[in-house]
Amino acid sequence: MRGWLCALVLLATGAQADEVIPRAPFVDAPGVQEVAFLARSVGGAERYVLEGSDLDTAHRPWSTFKIPNLLIALEIGVADGPNALRTWDSSRHPAGRWWPDAWLQDHTLATAFRASAVWYFRDVATEVGSDRYRDWLARWDYGNADPGEGRDDFWLGGPLEISVAGQVAFLESLLSGTAGVAPEHLEILAEISAEPDHAGLHAKTGAGPLVPGNLAGPFGGWYVGWQVREGAAPLAFALYMEAESFAALRDLRRDLAVTLLEAIAE
After folding, report:
1. Residues 175 and 105 in one domain
2. What is the full DSSP assignment across the chain?
3. Are residues 24 and 148 in the same domain?
4. Does residue 221 form part of some domain?
5. Which SUPFAM superfamilies match (predicted)?
């Protein structure tokens, strides 16, 4: 048994056990107020939980919604592939003071995903429409499956919300093939979401202010995805954290998730 595992907590069904990862020494960073982490093997019995994690409270998905958004766009033909190009219309989507330079240009589906260019996916949302989002999100049991009415930013300011457990369940359904997504579209997602510095890792970040519009206040942040493993089923995972500022979690969410995945592999 792995030396860093401190306990086995039986699930209510008795059919599976959580391998509980102790918070120390992994969670020890200034400004961090909350961290939750869950990793589960696709179709298997492995389930790893960071000690003290709240897996069931729903949060706004922020840019992690680009995973289902990309797939919906491909499935219904709003985008015909990773090279689907959209022109940035500055009159429709004027640049905010906080926009990174990478957003201030035209994007393809692939580059918009990697740069997390919100304007591109707001254009996608306008074309998809609330009814089709509601249908797909309900089909996937994605969080509360609520895109609101006529909203093109419902994953940022609400009403859409999803929990850590919900993120992992959604990814498991994709990887197991039960979500009903075309294999070629999953291949596009896998290619676009690959982390270049970590072989076998596919993920998306997301973050936003806990009080909408207050960019100087506390932030919530995500790092969700999956890890392909040699000789074992992939691990679907989600990390959610809250911190006193965006700067406090910007790099930490990814670094901490990678550290926890490496600990699991030991």
Report:
1. yes
2. --TT--EEEE-TTSS-EEEEEPSTTT---TTEEEEEEEEEETTSS-EEEETT---SS-B--GGGGHHHHHHHHHHHTSS-STT-EE---TTTSPPPTT--GGGSS-EEHHHHHHHT-HHHHHHHHHHH-HHHHHHHHHHHT-TT----SS-S-HHHHSS--B-HHHHHHHHHHHHHTTT---HHHHHHHHHHHB-TTSTTEEEEEEEEESSTT-TTS-EEEEEEEEEEETTEEEEEEEEEEEESSHHHHTTHHHHHHHHHHHHHH-
3. no
4. no
5. beta-lactamase/transpeptidase-like (SSF56601)
Each residue of 198-249: pLDDT tens digit?
Answer: 999 999 999 999 998 899 999 999 999 999 999 999 999 999 999 999 999 9
pLDDT tens for each residue of 44-77: 889 999 999 999 999 999 999 999 999 999 999 9
Q: Which of 63, 116, 163, 173 is catalytic?
A: 63
Catalytic residue at 63? yes
